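Entry 14: structure prediction run for Ribosomal RNA large subunit methyltransferase G. Input pasted below.
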Amino acid sequence: MSQAELNGEFYTLDRFPPNIEDASLQAWDAADEYLLQQAGEVEGPVLIVNDSFGALACALAAHHPVSIGDSYISELAMQHNLRMNGIEETCVTFQDSLSPLPDAPALVLIKVPKQLALLEQQLRALRQVVTPQTRIIAGGKARDIHNSTMALFEKILGPTTTSLAWKKARLIHCAFSAPALDDAPETLSWTLDGTGWNIHNHANVFSRSGLDIGARFFMAHLPEGIEGEMVDLGCGNGVIGMQLLAQNPGKVLFIDESYMAVASSELNVETNMPEALERSAFMVNNSLSDIEPDRFDAVLCNPPFHQQHAITDHIAWQMFNDARRSLKYGGALYIVGNRHLDYFRKLKRAFGNCTTLATNNKFAVLKAVKTRTKR
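Run finished. Output C-alpha cells:
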C-alpha cells in the first residue's frame, strides 16, 4: 500500500493480490502520471484501456469512465482501490476486451500492453467507436514503445506522434482518420501435433502462436482414469484441459483470470470436442478464489512467474495454497515449471509432500497430494 499523487490529488493504491514478499512494487507508474497530465479537462465519455490496478480509474472516477481490459485481477484491483479511496465502485464500469465498446468517446487513455497482438485487437475495436474528435493518448515505459507500436496506431487509427520521454515514460498521440484497413481474423489458429485439433487463440492468450514447450512436456505426463472433477488452472487456450477430457472420464473446469483465455478454451472444446462439452465448465476467476474446499480430485497448472512486468512467485504460491484447500483428501496438484524455480521445495512446504514425475533439461513435472498429515 502506498500513496500516489495523480493529477494533483493523493490516492492510496495497492497491487492486487497483495504481494507481501515485495511490498515495494507500486500499483501505478510514470506512464499513469504522464497520461493524466496530458488528459487535461475532459468533457464527454472516457474510455480507459489496460489500467492494471485502477490508478487511472481512481483519478478519473468523477467522469464515470469505462475501464476496458482482459484481466479479472485488474478488475478486482480497480474495485479494491476505489474502495480504499472512498470512491463508489459504480463510478467506474469494467468491461472485458471482447465486448462491444461504447460509442463516440471524448477521450481514450491506453496503457500500452506487452502483447502487440492484444494492442492490435483493442485498436481495431476502438476503430469501430472513436470519431475524429476523440482524443486518443497511449502511454507506457519508453523502452516498451517501439516503431512497431507506432506503426500499429498509424495503420489502424490514423496519424500518430510520440512525446518526449518523461521519467522513462513516453506517450503516443493519435488522431482518428479511418485509414483503409484489411479485416483480420478474430483468433489465430493452428493444428496441435498428434491430435488433429485446430486450436483457436484470442489475442491475449499465452503462447498464442503455438504450443509452448512447457505445456508440451506436461501433456506427456498427465493423469489418466480420474472419474471426479479436475481443474485446468490458468488454462490459457485449454489444451491441458482438453487432453484431460480425452484421457479421463471425469469433468474439467477451465479457469483463468484472462477473459480471452477462457473464451479461447470454450471455443476450442466446442469446435474440437463437442461431445465433451457436457463434462466441461468455464470460469474467469482469481486462481481458485471463493471455490468451496474439498471439491476436486485433481488440479493441474503451469504457474506464471510474472505479473504485468514484475517477476514474482506470489501468484504461484496462491495457486498452490488454493489448490490444497480446494482438493479432496487424496486429490493431487500436478504442475510443470522451470527447474530453476524450485517448485519442489515450495510444494513440499505447502502440502507436506512432493513427487517428481518427470524432468528434462529445462522443466520438471511435480505432483503433491493433499493428505491429513500435519504439515
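Notes: Residues 188-370 form a domain with the Rossmann fold fold (CATH 3.40.50.150). Will compare against the previous run tomorrow.
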